[in-house]
Amino acid sequence: MGQLNENDLVKIKDGVSFIPGASALVGPLNRIINWGRAGSIWPVTFGLACCAIEMMVAGSSTNDLDRFGIIFRASPRQADCLILAGTITKKMAPVIRRVYDQMPEPRYVLAMGSCACSGGLFDTYAVVQGGDNFLPVDVYIPGCPPRPEALIEGLITLQKKINQEQGRWSQLV
Amino acid sequence: MSRKISFNCPVQAGDEDRYRIQMGPQHPATHGVLRVDLDLDGEIIRKCNPHVGYLHRGFEKLAEHRTYVQNLVLTDRLDYMAAMANNVGYCEAVEKLLAIEVPQRSRYLRTMVCEMARLASHLLWLATHALDIGAMTVFLYCFREREELLEIFAELCGSRLTNTYTRLGGVRQDVTHSIMMKLEKFVDSFPSNLEEYETLIDTNRIWLKRTIDVGTVGADEAVGLCLTGASLRGSGVDYDIRKHFPYAAYDFMDFEVPLGETGDTYARYRCRIEEMLQSNSILRQCIERMPPGPIIGDDAPDLIMPNKPGRKVEVDVPAQQSLIKLVEDRETFMEGDVYVATEVPKGELGFYFVSDGNGTPYRMHIRSPSFLHISALKTMAKGSMLADLIAIIGTLDVVLGECDR
Prior knowledge:
The structure holds 2 protein chains of 2 kinds. Chain A is an alpha/beta fold. Chain A has 5 helices and 6 strands, in the order βββααβαβαβα. In chain A, the strands form 2 sheets. A 3-stranded antiparallel sheet of chain A has the order 1-2-3. In chain A, α1 runs antiparallel to α5 (148-163) and α2 crosses α5 (148-163). The relative contact order of chain A is 0.16. Chain B is α+β, with helices and mostly antiparallel strands. Chain B has helices at residues 59-63, 72-76, 83-98, 104-133, 136-157, 177-201, 205-211, 219-224, 230-233, 241-244, 265-289, 319-330, 369-381, 386-396, 400-404; strands at residues 18-23, 35-41, 44-51, 166-167, 170-171, 336-344, 347-355, 363-367. In chain B, the strands form 3 sheets. Chain B has a 3-stranded antiparallel sheet with strand order 1-2-3. In chain B, strands 6-7-8 form a 3-stranded antiparallel sheet. In chain B, β7 (347-355) and β8 (363-367) form a beta hairpin. Chain B is globular, with a radius of gyration of 23 Å. The N and C termini of chain B lie far apart (54 Å). Chains A and B meet through α2 of A and α4 and α5 of B.
């Protein structure tokens, strides 16, 4: 095997390259791990209200989410993303917190729709005024409900955010 | 010093197979956030206790502080699979209370959007019901058709799911030529698409085994359990509000009410499939017979156009005051109560208003079919297998937004 030439590398994304024929990735560990994580966001199948229907539409045939590597998992143990799709009531909030706690690190939270962002039009005794009251929300998606394209936009924003992370993997070791 | 842990839990003789399981609220097959407490004997359900309230948002209390017009947007979020049907139900009730006349064209438009909502809801029901039982392809096929309907909704009123299309006394916008063309194309192709689903599951052995004789309810029992809609008609009870107490333009429509015989999950499935065909034929009739004319009545509260010609309403009057003003002018705002029921895809949706002559309802009660259907779960699931509970929840076609309100 001769000297590795710069031109032999196939650039996958900024900082991550692929050596053809050797099944190897070249790049800083941060970048490679972030690249892997951003390309395999697995959200929990967890719908709360109206937005869940649009979340299902986003996952079905017309707006195929699988092409982003986004696959819905029924168990929080196998997931790394929680999409708060719908109104969060005070009765439901502890359950959501428990589902979030069951997810392994690193985990991300998307607030989908105005109810999950801020309580929406339900300013009542029964509704939590926004998911950020008890969860660290990464991306907010406005709309009532947001179109599936807006959810995809939110997930792409999350991918961008993941790509900018520094050394989150090292804290786990 | 280590504590001695004993795993020896005393179980009474004969009770080794008894389990208590909590299904939900995070469960993909509970259609949202339903929790079911189960008492199992092996795999057989001895006791089934549904718990609701995980999506209680306080609709009825919220409605007391908003005007009749403002409450319209709340009804979208009740049964979010068929928001149009809720809008129509709400408007029919308030129009009866305020004695507002609806022009003929907007009655036809309401019938049209109602049936489109019925198709969208039934398609979603078929998709999720089949997905729960294990047929993934049907899910993808159904969403393909549903998406066409939602795009028509988006073109009609700018929103896919929460439409708020109807107004007191009419509808928000007239249909355009392009909408009618798209709808006609959909109506033409839909029966063949429906056949496609039937070839997938109608004679599928797994589907038959999981639906025939599962969750059987007799006609008398179904009436006793307050089932409505296709869940009731699957047991052979001929009750459809569209046919027997017609609203909107249903009395001009020519359609049949499909009935089942056996009252099991398969009968209800056939009922809904037949209903989709009937809805399709109603849509065709709407397209063909759509009468010309205004889309909003002359005596409707001024909402869509503040300076409509010939009406004396200040532009910057808040909605509540303008409604009170209108009421004072016409002196038709009655005190008392009114109940109006409409046939939404899930069953009978009723709005009950108590009015004290103010601009806001004193009390708004929603008789939602899903709430009563969930209470029927207790009886229907008793004695069946654990896996059949998924099929029973699916066949009742519940939506928790409407159930918990």
